[in-house]
Amino acid sequence: MKGSVDTHLGPVWVEVADGAVVASGWGVAEGGDDPVLLATLDEVTAYFDGRLERFTVPLQPQVSGLTSRVLDALSAIPFGETRTYGDLSKDLGAPAQAIGQACGANPVPILIPCHRVLGATSLGGFSAPGGIEAKVWLLRHEGAAGLLI
Questions:
Q1: Other CB atoms closer than 10 Å to residue 30's CB: what's the count?
Q2: Where are the transmembrane segments (predicted)?
Q3: Which helix (H) or strand (E) holds 7?
Q4: Does residue 84 share a domain with residue 25?
Q5: What residue numbers bound the domain in which 33 lies?
Q6: CA nearest neighbour of 46 among 56, 36, 32
């Protein structure tokens, strides 16, 4: 079941299945009354309103292998902090390019904070409409703006 909520970056949709969030993305989706869906949409709203720093809804993205390990590492990055692709490469024993590809394959952006991962000499990419500008907005929203100066 899918539903969406308006945010500062435009509409964000969320999909739940079997009591957990399995995907999210950018755009509008029809709503439903699933309790996990409604709780997730409330948490997304609270995050964008500055009232939530850590999502508590159950996440179950349909990934495996390195991507699963990368998403776990992303979920461990605290609100307002960042890591580089190189940091994650060292931690996970995988090439930085593979880390970047796994970040790009994140099926649950925002809730799994791929926006908190930067390149060694650049901001890296981001899947939202507006790309890097959206990533900069999220980092500023989380108080990580000092990294951008």
A1: 9
A2: none
A3: strand 2-7
A4: no
A5: 2-48
A6: 56
Percent of the chain whose predicted confidence (pLDDT) is above 70: 97
Please state the rounded mean pLDDT for residues 24-53. Answer: 96
Catalytic residue, from 114, 123, 128, 134: name it.
114
Residue 111 confidence (pLDDT): 98
Location of structure tokens 């461990």: 76
Q: Is residue 133 part of a domain?
A: yes
Q: Is the domain of 118 the same as that of 80? A: yes
**Residue 142 covered by a domain:** yes
Active site annotation includes 103:
no
CA gap 60, 55 in Å, rounded = 13
Q: Taking residues 50-66, what's their average pLDDT?
A: 97
Q: Do 69 and 135 fall within a single domain?
A: yes
Per residue in 87-145, pLDDT tens? 999 999 999 999 999 999 999 999 999 999 998 888 888 888 888 899 999 999 999 86
Bigger pLDDT: 129 or 43?
Answer: 43
80 inside domain: yes
Distant-in-sequence, close-in-space partners of 126: CB < 8 Å, separation ≥ 6: 114, 115, 132, 134, 135
